[in-house]
Design brief:
single chain, 60 residues, alpha+beta, Alpha-Beta Plaits, two-stranded antiparallel ribbon
């Protein structure tokens, strides 16, 4: 999953917590957005969702 995110344009950092089954992605909002990051996971076994507090920040 982290590899898929790191290949996406605008991703500054990506980390995974396998125990919690989560990933944290820091990105440059001028180069990408949550929808594009979700698209980066297509073709993998993973899906992406924003935490409610993060969705509020992005308008999602």
């Amino acid at each position: 999953m982290v590899t898929a995110f790191k290949k996406a344009p605008g991703v500054l950092e990506a980390t995974t917590d396998f125990k919690a089954k989560t990933a944290t992605v820091k990105f440059d909002p001028s180069k990408t957005d949550a929808a594009k990051l979700s698209d980066a996971l297509k073709g993998t076994e993973f899906t992406a969702t924003l935490k409610p507090e993060e969705a509020a920040k992005t308008g999602g």
